[in-house]
């Protein structure tokens, strides 16, 4: 299992930590105080995530991260507020994600950096001409990519990686949207309907409704 260090301004309300709770990595949380990366001198992680306060200035924090003896030479993911997004491409980090991003997108970006295949799961799942590229965060039919939202892809990925298992709506909300998501189970039904429409027949046929339970992926 890959190791991730999360440096956050508020360890009690970290959207990143919540999103990665069921992810393919071990997350160690460190409190980011006054721009100081206070963590023990130990073996470097596979990824360092910086989740600064909304009012923080990013440049000094990135410089401090680069100079840190443990996390200074590893891949980094930075959580950014909207005002910093136009400058993100020039920032010295491996990747970035908006603070308002849903859990599925956060998990996808972390998975891309550390490689989901390292947790023993397939990096892609093929069902006929439908290919779900887990590492690439993309689904394709006959080689053509489907225009899925991050939540739609996360739902599809979860189902195809657990074929034959029925999931109730509450569990799907927890696994795909995150346990802090405030929406109701109707959200799952809406996303399943949209996903079926985008997959089309016969590719959507394995996405079955289990009466009284929820949904499952049952390849025919």
Descriptive notes:
With 220 residues, the protein is of the alpha/beta class. It folds into two domains: 2-117, Response regulator (Rossmann fold); 122-217, Arc Repressor Mutant, subunit A (Orthogonal Bundle), CATH 1.10.10. Helices cover 28% and strands 26% of the residues. The protein has six helices and 13 strands. The chain has helices at 15-19, 58-67, 103-114, 150-160, 169-177, 186-199; strands spanning 2-8, 25-33, 36-37, 47-51, 75-80, 95-98, 124-127, 130-133, 138-141, 144-145, 167-168, 207-210, 214-217. α3 packs across α4, α4 (150-160) crosses α5 (169-177) and α4 (150-160) packs across α6 (186-199). It starts with a strand and ends with a strand.
How many domains make up the coordinates? 2
By helix and strand content, what is the structural category?
Answer: alpha/beta
Strand order of the largest sheet: 3-2-1-4-5-6
Helix tally? 6
CATH H-tier superfamily of the largest domain: Response regulator
Order of helices and strands: EHEEEHEEHEEEEHEHHEE
Q: What percentage of the residues does DSSP assign to strands (E)?
A: 25-35%
Give the helices and strands, then pairings.
Layout: E1 2-8, H1 15-19, E2 25-33, E3 36-37, E4 47-51, H2 58-67, E5 75-80, E6 95-98, H3 103-114, E7 124-127, E8 130-133, E9 138-141, E10 144-145, H4 150-160, E11 167-168, H5 169-177, H6 186-199, E12 207-210, E13 214-217
Parallel strand pairs: 1-2, 1-4, 4-5, 5-6
Antiparallel strand pairs: 2-3, 7-8, 8-9, 9-10, 11-13, 12-13
Structure summary:
This protein is 28% helix and 26% strand. The chain contains six helices and 13 strands. The model is unreliable at 116-121 (pLDDT under 50).
